[in-house]
Write a structure and sequence with these properties.
This protein has 205 residues and is an alpha+beta fold. 29% of the residues lie in helices and 17% in strands. The chain contains five helices and seven strands, in the order H-H-E-E-E-H-E-E-H-H-E-E. The termini are far apart. The C terminus is likely disordered.
Length: 205
């Protein structure tokens, strides 16, 4: 029988596993601090900070054994004000056709394929807007100061876009190129014409 994860900080503190959840919180706070996610400052007049919450999750191995306790600080992005707290939110998503094409190239050209996981991916995005957030729920320094966000945080409306742009710029800096998909040709001929790194994919069927 799987134990339910705490729904909020209050439930986590009441849990007999609170010492483990508290360690997970400290790990998250340490990561946020090391990445320079925010700086504490006074709230400017006329501004209202967004709030945040803790999300808790037990992570298991494929055999079903408990692997770790995970805590994540999530911004309540639904309270963001359009035009002030965020502008564009669109982030490109890879198409299934592109994945199939890359896989076909890997098979035909004997490429090696690897998968990677970026820990705290959204925390790498650089925030363009001037955005303020209350101090982490339950872990304030006792002052009225707020967090001026420098990096994006999970829950913000623009986090996906900013992370994508940051990741894309790093890859371009290493001479990678984005796959250029010609949607019309794809629909008509079931093919893709584009570039992959320094290789060329002219017509895949």
């Amino acid at each position: 029988m799987t134990t339910e994860d705490p729904k909020d900080l209050y439930e986590a503190k009441r849990s007999p596993e609170w010492p483990e959840w508290e360690k997970a919180i400290q790990t998250e706070l340490s990561q946020l601090g090391n990445m320079g996610t925010w700086e504490l400052t006074d709230l400017p007049a006329g501004r209202k900070p967004i709030t945040n919450k803790w999300v808790f999750l037990r992570k298991y191995t494929k055999e079903g054994k408990l692997a770790k306790y995970k805590a994540r600080l999530v911004a309540r992005g639904y309270s963001q004000i359009p035009g002030m707290d965020f502008n564009d939110t669109f982030s490109p998503v890879v198409r299934l056709e592109a994945i199939r094409s890359i896989t076909a190239l890997a098979v035909n050209l004997d490429w090696e394929m690897q998968q990677m996981d970026v820990k705290g991916a959204y925390l790498n995005g650089i925030l363009k807007e001037e955005l303020y957030m209350t101090q982490p729920q339950g872990f304030s320094d006792g002052t009225e100061r707020v967090c001026r966000l420098i990096k994006t945080l999970y829950g913000l409306k623009q986090s996906g876009r900013e992370w994508n742009q940051e990741f894309n710029s790093k890859l371009i800096g290493r001479n990678f190129k984005r796959v250029v998909e010609h949607r019309k040709r794809l629909n008509e001929e079931n093919s893709i014409d584009g570039t992959v790194d320094d290789g060329r994919c002219d017509k895949l069927r």
